[in-house]
Specification:
The complex is a heterotrimer of chains A (509), B (319) and C (348). With 509 residues, chain A is an alpha/beta fold. Helix content of chain A is 32%, strand content 27%. Chain A is built from 17 helices and 24 strands. Chain A has a 6-stranded mixed beta sheet with strand order 6-9-10-3-11-12, with helices on both faces. A 6-stranded mixed beta sheet of chain A has the order 18-21-22-15-23-24. In chain A, α14 runs parallel beside α15. The termini of chain A are far apart. By secondary structure, chain B is mostly helical. Chain B has a single domain (3-300), classed as ABC transporter involved in vitamin B12 uptake, BtuC, CATH 1.10.3470. Chain B has helices at residues 3-33, 41-63, 67-92, 97-120, 146-150, 156-174, 176-186, 188-193, 198-225, 236-246, 251-270, 282-297, and strands spanning 134-135, 154-155. Chain B has a two-stranded antiparallel sheet with strand order 1-2. Chain C has 16 helices and no strands. The chains are: A alpha/beta (509), B mainly alpha (319), C mainly alpha (348). Chains in contact: A-B, A-C, B-C.
Chain lengths: 509, 319, 348
């Protein structure tokens, strides 16, 4: 069978960093081809080369057998290559149609022919079963719909090779099912698909072949039918992967965090947490499972004092902390590993040392009578850098210069060092490689074993099932079920998360 | 003095003062819609005023009554070329756009005064001898009541300014160029992935703002000040910037705001002759445009929101 | 790391150098002699004690406006309203200076504090709007500049004079003028303000680098979200930063009102001191010590320029062109970095 895309020995270097080291990727017509690799392995770079956003430093690209030079996205479009970006490339204030025609507008006498454009978008949408309203504003439609607009953008330009970049990361389980259907429809209509992912299950479910890359190098190309998740994981990481974190059974003690009837509104004033009840005890990890957007963010923000709760109570060790300012809550004994470490966890332009005292700088020994004590600050920083294996040239290096994993280690070190009774970890391993993930999971369990209460919020089911002692399923701002990870399955959790099955929630168990 | 007399005093002056602001504010709309903040409008007006006057003084004998028109063309060209500095600094060299705009303002004033001294040996130019004539718009000026108010005894440049506002609206909202311009200002990376050249669009937009700012400055100098010195353009560019914001980055809104600010200016000058305005201290009229703009930004008069990417350089393929 | 610190000094120096070269080209193209031009500029800035006195006098407000801009930059804000804060500070200082009869030890500090308070108030408004309504401070401070200009002119006309264009001279007890310094510098207008400016530079350094408040201000300046997560009061810090920045600018106005001029006149346009402060801050690397040096540079350029017409026939505006180009070059530091990295590659 002929190849529609051949990327032969592609090399791409940023400064001294080799992002793609002679990678070869060959895609057959009409197949769904997975590109598998860890974060930072070089998948996005390779695809950006194919899409014309980067120029390769070496290698050859052939499209339908012909050698080509893809100097910018226009050339890629002309060759029939379209990209469905992970972070949607949509202008919020534009309509669906305006976004789709942008750059190749149908015009008459210098004026955009909006009627014709809308008609064309409607027809395309119907042909591929996408059910998109051409006149809707992007800001008003759901994330799943926005992704379909991204797909339509490529189809409108006549793409027959579609690149999907981590398309399921932002979708609900239901939307993922629908997307898979759409991808199958596309292939039936003669399109070829490259699926960038690090999720093994998706590959096993929809893909025909898979190319694995690791640290910028091409490792293998396999037929999906002839492989299994364990083999793929080992190829991706470069060693046997422990899928489960070893841990002793939990020995829960007294309640540390007690949440009763909590109601929180989101930034737009919509009720996001709606009468939530939850208890976390000393010496246990409670994992919150749920689809993004079911009130997780607002729950954490209320717990840490970043937004005000409308009603309900939050108690820490029996003391009410509801709606206290963030600093009081920190002082009461709450540690927080925030979801977005760049935005919320670190001041990237501060030295890593000063980041270590971001919450405690005003207390002795780090300051006295309003004056900073740099010796004490940097002594502490050196200690934490050592204990938590933060790889940095020195403690004066700006946090920005560290890798994601090391930044996260620094944050965890800082939070754990304050010895909080409750540690809240939101998406603590997002975007990290397997080594850092293992390290962080171990540290969370370690905190539990020292008698701390740990609240883990994650959108990765594997992580929740692996680390938690109890799983609380959140749906539409309520805990609708509490399950034992040893006794549940992913299917059951998936159904619970989608709200289609309810279990009586054991509120204070 | 009855109400009609009062209006007949105020309204033509308001339109008269508004025209340079409209041109310049429209320039600002183009630049900021593409994502480039342009604090340098003041400097672009200065360059335009300088060019307009110097061209007029130099070539009045050759071109006669055509001179002021050619002077406007010269100001458009020089304004566009001068704004290239802002484009190069803030688009290509990723300079802070506000800082670059400040530098434009400094450079425009320094350079034009330097040249005035070099050419004329003194701090200000002579008065121009050939200006524009006031016209009565045929037909429209015969309409009772509003004819004399709006269409009589006015400069044709004022009407060009108003028409240009509608043309700008059409360009920005109805043409492929406008769609791309707005996309580049809202989400440059999205535009880039659609094959639109972000830097090129921004260069064009900044140069349009230079052309229109230069035009605004030349119109002001030709009609209102009739010479050029350090004080010819004193804050009009910033007032145009205010009009652009008060008009919510929309061409028609910017025109409306410019007309309104022109009204405030005209009141501060002719107000003393109007009975019930005589006791209002002029300072209130002078600061009105700025206070109103602050109130608009603070959300007291409907929220004004800038294009999302305004002020941030676009780095292609940023990791 | 080291090469970064290296560049911190190199970039402003190169920007200044490129600005001077560009200035020379402008002089050459317009038929002037650059050597004569720059010699008379240097003579006019440092040629004898009188010129040195004038240069220091001009440096004084530059230090303070530079600190005002830099303080805002360091706390994540762009205060383009230093000009207006300076004008209201000038007005407040003169107002106190003419209105009271007090012993010098009270009157002078009171007048300076009034200037600081007025500048702080002018910074408070954009600070509050930024903190509570998230309006960008650049536009608000520009608008505040014009409000300051017109309101100050109105007050000079209707309150500080009888429809005149300038106020009474301030009382001696509020004056910064110094017979001693004047005598030392052949009757230049140098005054004690330079001591206040240097002290202010120390205050800025100490506040930002050594105190917990400074830690908060810097943290909020770099990353509001992380600061909020860490328990800092983001809004209060934004407002405080604008207030302190405005206070520095207000004191700069006091230097003019109590030192250089001894009164205040109505203004057709801005003094330029506030906008020049942006250049001072950028060239000074937003650091207190650097600002002392760059303020001296700009003071010397401005004062030395006055000698250029008689010494070399060059219009004084040449210096404004040079300053504008320096700002361009320092703002386009990406270009300079790129040139430097190419130079390094070439050397390897």
């Amino acid at each position: 069978m002929e190849y529609v895309i051949e990327m032969l020995n592609i090399r791409k270097v940023f400064g001294t960093f080799v992002a793609n080291d002679n990678i070869t990727l060959q895609v057959k017509k009409g197949e769904i081809h997975a590109l598998l690799g860890e974060n930072g392995a070089g998948k996005s770079t390779l695809m950006n080369v194919l899409f014309g956003l980067y120029q390769p430093d070496g290698g050859e690209i052939r499209v339908k057998g012909k050698p080509v030079r893809i100097t910018d996205p226009n050339v890629a479009n002309d060759l029939g290559i379209g990209m469905v970006h992970q972070h949607f490339m949509l202008v919020d204030t534009f309509t669906v149609t305006e976004n789709i025609i942008l750059g190749s507008e149908p015009a008459q006498a210098g004026t955009i022919d909006m009627k014709r454009a809308e008609q064309e978008v409607r027809e395309l949408s119907e042909r591929y079963g996408l059910a998109v309203d051409p006149t809707a504003k992007i800001a008003d439609i759901s994330v799943g719909m926005q992704q379909r607009v991204e797909i339509l953008k490529t189809l409108y330009r006549g793409a027959d090779i579609l690149i999907f970049d981590e398309p399921t990361a932002v979708l609900t389980p239901q939307e993922i099912r629908e997307l898979i259907e759409i991808m199958r429809t596309l292939v039936r209509e003669g399109k070829s698909i490259i699926l960038i992912t690090h999720k093994l299950k998706e590959i096993m479910e929809v893909c025909d072949r898979v190319t694995v890359i690791r640290r910028g190098k091409g490792i293998a190309t396999l037929n999906v039918a002839e492989t299994n998740p364990n083999e793929l994981a080992a190829l991706m990481v470069g060693r046997e992967v422990q899928f489960t974190t070893e841990k002793r059974p939990a020995e829960p003690g007294k309640p540390v965090l007690e949440i009763e009837n909590l109601v929180v509104k989101d930034a737009r004033g919509v009720t996001a947490v709606n009468g939530l009840n939850l208890t976390v005890r000393a010496g246990e990890v409670v994992g919150i499972a749920g689809v993004d957007g079911n009130g997780q963010t607002e729950l954490i923000e209320a717990l840490t004092g970043l937004v005000k709760a409308e009603s309900g109570t939050i108690k820490l060790n029996g003391q009410e902390i509801t709606n206290l300012p963030p600093r009081k809550i920190v002082e009461a004994g709450v540690g927080h590993i925030p979801q977005d470490r760049h935005k919320h966890g670190l001041v990237l332009d501060f030295p890593i040392g000063e980041n270590m005292v971001l919450q405690t700088y005003y207390k002795p020994p780090y300051s006295k009578r309003g004056m900073l004590n740099f010796k004490a600050i940097y002594d502490k920083a050196r200690q934490l850098i050592r204990e938590f294996d933060v790889r940095t040239p020195d403690e004066y290096t700006k946090a920005r210069a560290l890798s994601g994993g090391n930044q996260q280690k620094a944050i965890i070190g800082r939070e754990v060092d304050r010895n909080p009774d409750l540690l809240i970890a939101a998406q603590p391993t997002r975007g990290l490689d397997v080594g850092a993930i293992e390290f962080i999971h171990k540290r969370l369990i370690e905190q539990r074993d020292q008698g701390k209460a740990v609240l883990l919020v994650s959108f990765e089911l594997d992580e929740v099932m692996n680390v938690s002692d109890r799983i609380a399923v959140i749906y539409e701002g309520k805990i609708i079920a509490i399950v034992d990870p040893k006794e549940t399955t992913e299917q059951e959790l998936g159904l619970l998360m989608a709200g289609s099955k309810r279990k009586e929630a054991g509120v204070s168990s | 003095m009855n109400v009609y007399d009062v209006l007949q005093t105020i309204i033509p002056t308001a339109i008269f003062f508004a025209a340079p602001l409209i041109f310049t504010a429209l320039g600002g709309v183009f630049s900021e819609r593409s994502g480039v903040v342009n604090i340098g409008l003041e400097g672009l007006m200065v360059i335009g005023a300088f060019t307009g006057i110097v061209f007029n003084l130099t070539f009045a004998d050759q071109f006669g009554s055509l001179t002021p028109w050619l002077a406007l063309v010269a100001a458009i060209v020089v304004g566009a070329l001068f704004s290239l500095l802002h484009a190069v600094a803030s688009v290509t060299f990723r300079a802070d756009q506000v800082v670059s705009g400040v530098a434009i303002n400094f450079l425009a004033l320094g350079l034009s005064l330097f040249l005035v001294k070099k050419m004329y040996g003194k701090g200000q130019t002579d008065q121009i001898q050939v200006g524009f004539d006031k016209i009565d718009v045929p037909v429209l000026s015969d309409i009772p009541v509003i004819g004399p108010l709006l269409f009589s005894n006015a400069y044709v440049t004022s009407y060009i300014a108003i028409i240009l506002a509608f043309v700008s609206w059409y360009i920005i909202y109805k043409t492929p160029f406008g769609l791309r311009l707005r996309a580049v200002g809202e989400h440059p990376m999205a535009a880039d992935t659609m094959g639109i050249h972000v830097a090129q669009m921004r260069y064009i937009a900044v140069m349009i703002s230079g052309a229109l700012g230069g035009l605004g400055g030349a119109v002001y100098a030709t009609i209102i000040s009739r010479d050029f010195s350090h004080a010819t353009i004193s804050g009009h560019g910033f007032m145009a910037l205010a009009a652009m914001i008060f008009g919510k980055w929309h061409p028609i809104g910017a025109m409306g705001a410019a007309l309104f600010f022109g009204l405030a200016q005209s009141l501060s000058i002719v107000g003393q002759t109007i009975p019930f305005l005589k006791n209002v201290p002029t300072v209130y009229l002078l600061i009105a445009p700025y206070v109103l703009t602050i109130l608009a930004l603070a959300g007291f008069i409907g929220r004004a929101e800038a294009p999302k990417a305004a002020g941030t350089p676009y780095v292609k393929g940023k990791r | 790391m080291r090469s970064n610190r290296h560049q911190q000094f190199l970039i402003p120096l190169l920007a200044v150098l490129l600005g001077m070269i560009a200035g020379s080209i402008v002089m050459l193209v317009s038929g002037y002699n650059p050597v004569a031009g720059f010699s008379s500029l240097i003579y006019g800035a440092f040629g004898d004690a009188y010129y040195i006195g004038e240069t220091i006098r001009q440096t004084t407000p530059y230090i303070l406006t530079g600190l005002a801009v830099a303080f805002a930059f360091r706390t994540g804000l762009f205060n383009i309203g230093v000009e207006g804060q300076l004008i209201v500070g000038w007005l407040a200082a003169v107002w106190v200076g003419v209105s009271f009869d007090l012993p010098k030890i009270i009157h002078l500090p009171l007048a300076i504090l009034a200037a600081a308070a007025a500048g702080a108030l002018w910074g408070l408004i954009p600070g509050v709007l930024k903190a509570y309504v998230k309006v960008h401070e650049v536009i608000i401070t520009i608008m505040m500049n014009y409000i300051a200009l017109h309101v100050t002119n109105a007050i000079i006309r209707s309150v500080l004079s009888d429809e005149g264009f300038k106020s009474e001279p301030i009382k001696q007890s509020a004056s910064l003028q110094s017979e001693f310094l004047e005598a030392m510098t052949y009757h230049s207008t140098m005054h004690y303000g330079i001591l206040i400016a240097i002290a202010a530079a120390f205050v800025m350094w100490f506040l930002l680098e050594r105190t917990t408040k400074g830690f908060e201000l810097r943290a909020v300046g770099f990353n509001q979200h992380a600061s909020q997560y860490a328990g800092m009061n983001v809004r209060a810090n934004i407002i405080l930063a604008m207030v302190i920045s405005g206070a520095f600018a207000g004191v700069a106005g006091a230097m003019e009102g109590l030192g250089t001029f001894g009164n205040i006149s109505t203004k057709a346009g801005f003094t330029g001191l506030g906008f020049d402060g942006i250049a001072v801050a950028l060239i000074g690397g937003n650091n207190a010590f650097g600002i002392l040096l760059s303020a001296l540079l700009f003071g010397a350029l401005k004062v030395g320029a006055l000698e250029m017409p008689s010494g070399a026939g060059v219009p004084t505006e040449l210096v404004d062109i040079i300053i504008a180009l320096i700002i361009f070059f320092v703002a386009s530091s990406y270009m300079i970095r790129w040139l430097l990295s190419r130079g390094q590659k070439g050397a390897e």
